[in-house]
Amino acid sequence: TYMLPSEEALAIGPLLQQRFGLPFWQIATTATDANRFALRVARAITGREKILVFNGCYHGSVDETMVRLVDGRPANRPGLAGEFRDLTRATDVVEFNDVPALETALRDQQIACVVTEPVLTNSCMVLPDPGFHEALRRLTRAAGTLLLIDETHTISTGPGGYTGRHGLEPDLFVLGKPIAGGVPASVWGMSEDVATRYADYIRTKEPGYSGMGTTLSANPLQFAAMRATLEEVMTDENYSHMDHLARRLDAGLTAVIDRYHLPWHVARVGARVEFICAPGPLRNGGEAETAHAPALEAAIHVALVNRGVLIAPFHNMMLISPATSAAQVNRLITAFGAVAARLAA
């Protein structure tokens, strides 16, 4: 690392602006870091401590997001190592797609930022109800609360992510590992208003380390990998290819499920496809948690491997890449059909 800007930054800045619509960008090493730094900015400029997340969310290992609902009440997630704090003191949690609960949580105007994925992805996949994102944006603006969209898992939607495809208007935007094709890198962007307010805050805050940035953030390898990914991999042509095959995979898996009358369903966001061993669609994180069938899913994964097909070893998630072929998709559908036939026999 040079710990100084490199010439690639001159190319990356406009690429990010054009791709994702926000004018100001920073580089970090992981989505966890990017989310942490963006939340610091949100708290700094709003003067509020609390954030809000949705039950079943995933934002890396950001401490404040490690909460869930238990019998309708916020609680720390189970199994956190060395965590003695009550994380719910500074984090509210409501169910995804629950607009009345969101409105209630924002009413006292104490929330600095709502941080969310456009689609819940690290549980069984949960898609937003029609109008949910419009309500989320309207309610956050009315409460003076910033909106952070974490696209790390939903960049599969299209070249501009779910945000670009569906016209979302975040104040802060995070994208992790896909942005550099697997090289450890992430980006976080901010709107003109947020950048102006943060610049005002910096001018008045006491001197000292902000708590943001790491030695390897914005190193030359990250910039080179990001430029190659943005210019040569995340292209309209490649996304069209991925979307076409993802639609084929969705339809093929759904046909198998219907053929054997299994109480399952398929969810998809762009090139990301998942079969879920429960009826659907799911509406929130609570339903997604209940829908998990770990023993059955593990058996399906082994059965697929025995037929020469390996999918992601968590959930039942499959990602179409620019290199994926129609033959590979057909092989997966055929293997899934054989497994389903055995289960239904």
Defining key terms:
Aspartate Aminotransferase, domain 2, single chain, 11 helices, alpha/beta, globular, Aspartate Aminotransferase, domain 1, 345 residues, 7-stranded mixed sheet, 3-stranded antiparallel sheet
Question: What is shown here, in short?
Answer:
The protein has helices at 8-20, 31-46, 99-106, 132-143, 161-166, 192-204, 220-233, 236-259, 285-291, 294-306, 326-344; strands at residues 24-28, 50-54, 67-70, 73-76, 91-94, 111-116, 146-150, 172-175, 186-190, 265-269, 272-276, 317-319. The chain has 345 residues and is an alpha/beta fold.
What this model shows, in words?
- The protein has eleven helices and twelve strands.
- By secondary structure, the chain is of the alpha/beta class.
- The chain has two domains: 8-233, Aspartate Aminotransferase, domain 2; 236-344, Aspartate Aminotransferase, domain 1 (Alpha-Beta Complex), CATH 3.90.1150.
- The strands form three sheets. Strands 1-9-8-7-6-2-5 form a seven-stranded mixed beta sheet, sandwiched between helices. The chain has a three-stranded antiparallel beta sheet with strand order 10-11-12, covered by helices on one side.
